[in-house]
Each structure stands twice: as structure tokens, then as C-alpha cells.
Amino acid sequence: MIIGLDMLMRAAYCRGVLRALQIAISKREGVELMILEKVGRQYRTLERIDGIIGFFGENDRSFLTNPPLPVVNVSSRMYDCPVPVVTDDNIGIGRMAADYLLELGCEEFGFCGRHEHLFAVLREEGFRERLTESNRYAPERYHFFDIPESRVNTDLPELSDWLVSVTKETGVFCVNDELALRVSHLARAAGVSIPRPLSLLGADDDDISVLADGSLLSSIRQDFDRIATKAVDLIIRQIKGEVAPPAVTVVPPLQLITRHSTDITSNVDPHMLRAIHFIREYACKGIHVQDVLANLPMSRRVFETRFKDAFGHSPYEEILKVRFELAKKLLRTEPGATIPQIAEKCGYENSKQFSVMFKKMTGMAPGEYRSVRH
Q: I need a labelling partner for 148 at 20 to 30 A (CA). Which of 30, 53, 113, 155 fits?
């Protein structure tokens, strides 16, 4: 069985999927990969191919409407794709970005994306949706910049003018790392400091961009292994004769990688650094603010004031944040764990109290969150 690949190699997402596909196929006996070549819009040869996994967009719609062999699309650039799609959860990526920038204590928010592709529209939708749920969204504090692929490396006067005006703690999410790198260059030219007052976050965790020019960009990493495994399973089932409707399977993002572009602790008071590290290590052991204070030479009032000045929220809120980040992870990844077991792992002896606080923090009961996010 030979699976043909049609990937846009200049896209970081495609390179990540391709690497994962190579690993996934290496574990299957009797299955090979072949990179397909095109002449114009026509493949050079399909005689030896049993199915195709590709990164397809609107320009490929005529081919996908009546393909000569089974096809799986791993792109989310198309509305109403006529073949099955396995791709990343773009709304989830936007929500993860918003959650993180909210946790940093940002007062204003920017989104740099593009209306020309569905994936970018969905990431902005998730980003704005999560900000709205947090009650931190306001039109005058939200700044959207539409930057088509063709303009990424051109002058962007509207964005540059806005960057010059940034004084408050501002979090900017860019639809991918290539664009985040461009924004970091524009911010540098505008004399805006990163990570304060400008925290900058990208997506795809593209090593070509996130480490370029010493920028050290924070980024959201997709679960390429899971995307590849699901795509391979689906194309093999089709090759064997199973009929697959044109449904979309989305895979949640894997993790957020923190680097200098959002590392607001880089110039923080050493006492506050010690406090936040203590909280992040022991929050799920059931500690309280008083336990953190026991390691510091100051009153509770002074501590809470200095902590909020450093991180934008109280130490109690940091304890809750750490606990419920773990809770959300366990609800997604451990379907067999009971709510009392998860509550205990997050530092709660009383699962009822845990459930009440979880709903207050997320807007959903633990069981509801698990069913929606699983």
C-alpha cells in the first residue's frame, strides 16, 4: 500500500505533520509514503498510489469534489471540505492563547491574523470567545490586524503605529510563528519592550521562527503525532473500502511553550519569584497563602501588594490557576479518573468544594468540561 503526500513544505504546520506521518507510517507493515509531484494543478503520476494525505485549500476544491482515489485533508483552510479532514483544533488554540495571556495579567489584547484562511478565522474566534467569557473583553481594548500571507514581510504601518502607542500590559496572539516573528521585529523598531509591556505569542512552535534572531518566541505546539495517526488510520480504512463521509476531526493543541517573549518573570523581585515557584510546585498539595508567606520576610499585606504588582493577580488566584490547570488536564487525559480522585490530586479534600470552584473558574461543571473538551 502506497500513500501519496501533497504538503505545502514552506508551512511550519505541514512540516510538523510530515515528520509525524513519517513516524506513524514507519510503524505500519506494508505501508509506504511517496511525495507527490505536480505539474500545474495536475499530479505527475497517480498510477502507483492507493490514497492521498494532503494539505489542501480552496484552489484544490475541483480535485477534491470528485477525487480519483481516497483522500484525507490535514488542512483547515477550507470551508465545507468535500473529503474527510483531520486537523488541529483551531478554536482550542485560540482559547489556549487567551487563557495564557489572561493569566499573565494583560490589560489589552491584540490579534494578528488573516481573513483569507479558515484556520486563522477559527483561532481568532476562540481567542475572542475566551476573552469574552473572562469578562476582560472590551472593543476598545481589543485590536485586530488582518495581515494576508502576501504582506507578512512588507511594511505594516497600521500595526506599527499601534505598537508605538502600547504602554499598558498588552498580550498579542499571532496566528502563527512566522507572523509573530514579524511582529517582534516591528515592536523592536517601534521601541516597544518584550515581554513587558508587550507579551507576544505565536502558534505551531516552528523552530525556524521561534528561535530566529534571538527572538525566543513563546508558541503553542500542536499534537502532530495524534493528527498523523488519525489521518493514517482514516486513509487506510478508506483504501480498504470503508466509506468515509466528509467529516472534520479536530485534535486539541498539545502544550504552550513559554520563552522570553512572554516571560514576565525575567525582571521580577527575587522574593516574588521564590513565591510563585513555591506556589507552582505545591499548589496541588493543598497549601494556602499563609504557607507561601512563611518563606518570606514581609507582612501579608505587603506580600499580596508586591505579588499583584509583579504578576497582575493575587497569590490566591495563582494557587487556583495552578490547581485548575491541572484539573483541566486530568479531565482531558484521564477519562477513567473520578471527580473525587481529580479533586484530591488538585489539593482538595472535599470534591463538592472542588466542583463548585471549578465551575466558578471555568463556567462549567467538571463533568461537563470533560464531555465538551475530551
A: 53
- Quote the CA–CA distance of 99 and 101 in Å, as a whole number: 6
DSSP code, position 28: S
Which domains are delineated in the chain? 2-87+223-251 (3.40.50.2300), 90-222+256-262 (3.40.50.2300), 270-367 (1.10.10.60)
88 contacts 227 by C-beta, under 8 angstroms: yes
- Looking at residue 258, the DSSP 8-state letter turns out to be P
Of 135-139, 296-300, 342-346, which range is least confident? 135-139
Lookup result for grid cell 473538551: 373
| pLDDT 10s digits, 16-59 | 999 999 999 988 899 999 988 877 778 887 888 999 999 999 88
Round to whole Å and give the CA distance between 292 and 209: 38
* The predicted structure's pLDDT at residue 39: 76
Treating both helix axes as pointing N-terminal to C-terminal, what angle do 315-333 and 366-373 enclose, rounded to 10 degrees?
50
CA angle 315, 321, 325 (to 5 degrees): 155
- Let me know: does 277 contact 310? Beta carbons within 8 Å: no
Share of the chain above pLDDT 70, in %: 98
Q: Do residues 173 and 316 lie in contact, with contact meaning Cβ atoms separated by under 8 Å?
A: no
Reduced to 3 states (helix: H, G, I; strand: E, B; else coil), residue 214 is helix
Are 141 and 173 contacting, i.e. CB atoms less than 8 angstroms apart? no
